[in-house]
Amino acid sequence: MDITEVSKRSGVPASTLRFYDEKGLITSIGRHGLRRLFDPGVLERLALIALGRAAGFSLDEIALMFASDGQPRIDRQMLADKADELDKTIRNLSAMRDGLRHAAVCPEPSHMECPKFRRIVKAAASGAIGAPRKRAVPRPS
């Protein structure tokens, strides 16, 4: 299949296919003029890449999930670790959602007078909920 057909059948833009090819995530099997050609098995590989991206894996992590022959070689511990990470994200997002719902209906005149809202603000400031805080890089002495 040429790159245009792969793009149409997979929904992945040709520019992304070229990027994945350059990164080694997929491999073209030749060219027809200037167009890259791919084995039909590339569609399954693209589906696995899409699944990995949807789960939050980086492209470098996804690359590790394929053996040199192109067959999937998925590290089960990596999957378990990602599931744990997703559980933590779900807990954080659930806490944030619950806090926002409370803040939307809180009867206090000011959100800063609401004990529950103040706990949420304190948790966010400490990094317990929300985006991870960046650690300061120590300066060389």
Summary, kept brief:
The protein has 141 residues and is mainly alpha-helical. It is built from 6 helices and 2 strands.
Describe the structure.
The chain has helices at about 5-10, 15-25, 40-55, 60-65, 75-105, 115-125, and strands spanning about 30, 35. A hairpin with a 2-residue loop joins strand 1 (about 30) and strand 2 (about 35). With about 140 residues, it is mainly alpha-helical. It starts with a helix and ends in a 15-residue tail after the last helix. The protein has six helices and two strands. A two-stranded antiparallel sheet has the order 1-2.
Query: What percentage of amino acids are in beta strands?
Result: under 5%
Low-confidence regions: none
Order of strands, widest sheet: 1-2
The whole-number mean of residue pLDDT values reads 87
